[in-house]
Amino acid sequence: MRKTIAAGVVAGFALAAGFIAPAQAISATTADLSVLHGIPDTPVDVYVNGELTLDDFQPGDLAGPLDLPAGDYEVALTATDAADASAPILGPITLTLAAGSSYTAVAFLDEAGDPTAKLFTNDISTTAAGEGRLTVRHVAAAPAVDILAGGAPVVEDLVNPNEATLNIPAGTVSASVALAGTTEPVLGPADVAVQDGVLTIVYAWGSAEGESLALAVQNITVGHTAPGGVNSGTAGYAAQRDAIVPALWILGIAFSAALASLGVVTARRARAASVES
Q: Where are the transmembrane segments (predicted)?
């Protein structure tokens, strides 16, 4: 019983830690790196500096962010269960990460359908209060596209492997992808939630010819500049901590008390049954 109660309290503190952790742990000496697998029908193993980092990485999967010291990293993609990185199917590719920055490395198909990769730098500057940031990245084997919101183009002639970024009011956007100059969706529409102080990145990946076009979404909390010019990018976490930790502490105590009470009731029933027999 004591072990069970202790486990409940520890779980409560673990949950609290998960709530208050920022979306990125960037520091003056580190960078954040996420990895998106956008090559259809090709599970891979990902090696970083010769070490297996992602095992059996599936198309459409997004991993990270990894908090890494700034510097150069050699990345290679191999067939799953490869013995090492000596026979990559893509790479090795050198990724240069600068301190204080956020990146997403994407393995994808170029417009001709050949595997390639690119390191995107994520715009993690704060947004205005009430706004979010929407970035759209074209990493699909497809020609130039327009991005439609509510049926109207908001980004035009986006070609692989380029991106476009908009700061827009927080809310839900009905987004779709159409061939440039048209309004008939080839992908979507799909509802995309743009949140206050959050960078939402939408990737169009896959292959038009292979009929495997799909969307992937990545969210990074960047914070916003509150009215009066005060940056609320990190202050929000302190307020979140102050509100959540006491609540979870109370929840942990209540949960522990419930377990203890259950133990007492069970013991009393056992003693009563013993007396009756």
A: 247-267
Whether residue 85 contacts residue 47, with contact meaning beta carbons closer than 8 Å, is answered with yes
* Alpha helix ranges (H) inside the chain: 2-20, 235-276
Quote the pTM value.
0.74
What residues pair up with 92 in beta bridges, in sequence order? Answer: none
The residue extents of the domains of the chain are: 26-122, 123-223
pLDDT digits (tens, 9 = 90+) for 159-205: 999 999 999 999 998 989 999 999 999 988 989 999 999 999 999 99
Q: How far apart are CA 267 and CA 277, in angstroms?
A: 16
CATH number of 26-122: 2.60.40
Same fold, 26-122 and 123-223: yes
Tokens of 33: 């790196």
Burial letters 33-43, b for 16+ CB under 10 A, else e: bbbbbbbbebe
Provide the mean pLDDT of the chain. Answer: 80
List CB contacts of 139: < 8 A, sequence separation 6 or more.
36, 38, 106, 108, 109, 118, 160, 161, 203, 204, 205
Alpha-carbon distance of 163 to 137, in angstroms, equals: 4
Q: How far apart are alpha carbons 147 and 29 in whole angstroms?
A: 36
Q: What's the longest Cα–Cα distance across the chain?
A: 85
Q: What is the pLDDT of residues 239-272, one digit of tens each?
A: 333 333 333 333 343 334 433 444 444 444 444 4
Tally the residues of the chain: 277
